[in-house]
Amino acid sequence: MSSENWRTRWVTDKCNIALALESGQVGAGYSEAAILVCATLNALAAEVWPGRGLDRVRFVELLIKMTPSSPSPATISVPLLVQHLRTESLTAEADTLARALMPFGSSLVITGSDVDKSEFELLSICPAIPVGLLRKNSYACLLYEDVRSSYAHEYRPGGRADSWPMTMLQGQCVSYVNKVMERRVHFHIEWLARIAVELAKSIDASDATLPLARPATWWIKGAP
DSSP code of 111? Predict the structure, then answer.
């Protein structure tokens, strides 16, 4: 691999370590793997948009605007969005989405591909939902707040995420863990590692000179 692709090599090495940790090597597991992959994503975001006080906005921006992976990190978690709407007393909106997209019981084990949708699709079903609330329930924002930050500061997932997959299906990117009164999201390490490597390859292949200029408005703040 040429010196021009050092970033891809560095990220690939870190992600291979994360995958080994997640498999249980040296007594590790999901927690250690998630910390390492998220730190790698943080490093990429800080290189693209350096500076202090930008950690959340640039982490999310990197995933939303520069990730070629599918599913898109801009995808909205419908189960968590419905739960969020109910906490905000937006019961009519929550009921509309639940009827349209979650016509099943709370015990069914589901994955992101079963239920999650794009911002456009959700607004076509229920245009009254504030865009800012939608984006707070995007994969990118959930990953930052309930995985990256929670593990970095508390060494555990946040209240909307879980560290183990309930689904037995292989090759999943995002899935859900059923709790008594709610569902929690699980981001599979294999998918997160793939995102990190694809981002590194994309940056290495780009003609743009880093760092990039900061957006006039960050995506999480409402940019189109």
Answer: B
The per-residue pLDDT string of the chain (224 residues; one tens digit each, 9 = 90 and over) reads 456 799 999 999 999 999 999 999 999 999 999 999 999 999 999 999 999 999 999 999 999 999 988 899 999 999 999 999 999 999 999 999 999 999 999 999 999 999 999 999 999 999 999 999 999 999 999 999 999 999 999 999 999 999 999 999 999 999 999 999 999 999 999 999 999 999 999 999 998 899 999 999 999 999 98
- Residues in the chain, how many? 224
CB contact at 8 A, 173 and 188? yes
Beta-carbon count within 10 A of 3 CB: 6
- Please choose, from the candidates 67, 53, 44, 80, the residue with its C-alpha nearest in 3D space to the C-alpha of residue 161: 80
Listed by start position, the domains of the chain span 3-221
Cβ atoms of residues 37 and 192 within 8 Å: yes
Distance CA 45, CA 56 (A): 10
Q: Nearest to residue 7, comparing CAs of 201, 219, 171, 180?
A: 201
- Token representation of residue 71: 């599913």
Beta carbons of 189 and 19 less than 8 angstroms apart: yes
> For residue 112, which of 165, 155, 157 has the smallest C-alpha distance?
165
Distance CA(14)–CA(36), nearest Å, equals 7
